[in-house]
Amino acid sequence: MYKIVIKGGRRLRGEVSVSGAKNAALPILASSLLARGQSTYRNVPGLGDVITMRKLLGQLGAEVSGDGTTVVDTSNVVNFEAPYELVKTMRASALVLGPLVGRYGKAQVSLPGGCAIGARPIDQHLKGLSAMGARIELEHGLVTARARRLHGATIVFDVVTVTGTENLMMAAALAKGTTVLENAACEPEVEELGRVLNKMGAHVRGAGTSLITIEGVDELHPVDHAIIPDRIEAGTLMVAAAITRGNVLIRDCLPEHLDAVIAKLVAAGAEVTMEADGVRVVGKADIKPTDIATRPHPGFPTDMQAQFMVLMSKAKGQSVLSENIFENRFMHVPELMRMGADIVIDGHIAVVRGPVKLKGAKVMATDLRASACLVLAGLIADGTTEVLRVYHLDRGYDHLERKLRRLGADIRRVKVKGEL
Ligand code: EPU
């Protein structure tokens, strides 16, 4: 067990590179199951969820080697079950459902229970697979999907779902006939999966828009692919620069994936400039209150809501944040309040009043983006902040504290004895 210890007050300066995108790497690693043989993925981020996906692929019989460049050999896949032990630590384990039933005609995935940020059912994934001809059974907490061969179908999602869209794209890639996904998620990671599937020989059109058409093919082949940069890591580093009145060049990021985040940073008074090799963020003393409503892409991402709350606590005036994607994504608020933030929650709305001087404290997060928010708060708090349960942070960030330290933050990872 580790904790992160931060002494606040340093202005961040310098350059930092963004790692590969977690939420692109996970479906892409799962997509390896659609073809027989050895696929090579580059720019794979070193983080907990990727390790879990590697374990899952390993349990299915794939051979996985390498890290930053990961090689997955699916020649000997013999098992079609994603067990509870893995699904309970990472809901994105459900991403093997589509590829397994699409290629092998059978998949068994332990039904993910509710998680820290909300109920997060997978009914839309199952509805789509069923429309494509899969027989779905739910028994003993396991979902079993079976089909001799899936067929194309037109599926209209009731809610916009990122992994739901990805699961059905993968299932449809090997189905007989054409599948149309309406009200599909438009996230850059969905578009990236479409790119990878097409490289494998699939016929996917419209990935990255709300209407995706997939003409099924009989066979796909392995690929060699470099994963896009993580827009949420980039956004987190941008907020770090803005709140510390820093001057940071964020390299290896795709600013076109961050339009909504950059627009809000600028509205809050940060200076954001596009340079040849990255995005420069210069933080100003005068932070303006800014309202934020999370929406599916291209709206403001829910995965940046917690981090923005720290910026809002430094703004002169009142900001309103509404969380519209997950029903329980304010768990960072009580911890921020312990550090001195002035926040009132009413349902899915949080009203943040600033500016406040945050004070260092021992804090603990229950999910990934909440941990990132507390690390950011520690960067500007008076005194020392200890962020406990760092495994949440490590699930989704590739050594965030190392990157912040290189930018001048006084931050270290400390081993602790026993459970926290
Ligand atoms: N939903 C349903 N039924 C479904 C699927 C989703 O009701 O069958 C609801 C969910 O409960 C939620 C909303 O639809 O209220 C959106 O959920 P979505 O399915 O889009 O989320 P996800 O695919 O499980 C991905 C990311 C999340 C990110 C969300 C929203 C991956 C691996 N995870 O989750 O990332 O917050 O999309 O953009 O891509 C994170 O990285 O910290 C993270 C949580």
Describe the overall structure.
With 420 residues, the protein is of the alpha/beta class. The protein has helices at residues 22-31, 48-60, 84-87, 97-104, 123-131, 162-173, 188-199, 231-243, 259-267, 305-313, 332-338, 368-380, 391-396, 400-406, and strands at residues 2-7, 13-17, 38-42, 63-65, 70-73, 81-82, 106-110, 135-139, 142-146, 154-156, 178-182, 203-205, 211-215, 224-226, 247-251, 271-275, 278-282, 292-293, 317-322, 342-346, 349-354, 362-364, 384-388, 410-415. A four-stranded mixed sheet has the order 22-23-1-24, covered by helices on one side. Strands 2-15-17-16 form a four-stranded mixed sheet. The longest helix is centred in the first third of the chain and has 13 residues, at 48-60. The protein starts with a strand and ends in a 5-residue tail after the last strand. The relative contact order is 0.16. The model has no long low-confidence stretch (mean pLDDT 96). Bound molecules: uridine-diphosphate-2(N-acetylglucosaminyl) butyric acid.
Could you report the average pLDDT, rounded to the nearest whole number?
96
Small ligands present:
uridine-diphosphate-2(N-acetylglucosaminyl) butyric acid
Separation, N- and C-terminal Cα atoms: 8 Å
- Unreliable parts: none
- Classification by helices and strands: alpha/beta
Using the CA coordinates, give the radius of gyration. Answer: 21 Å
In which range does the helix fraction lie? 25-40%
The largest β sheet comes out as: 4 strands, mixed
Strand content: 25-35%
Strand order of the largest sheet: 22-23-1-24
Large-scale geometry: elongated
Q: Could you tell me the number of beta strands?
A: 24
List the total number of helices: 14
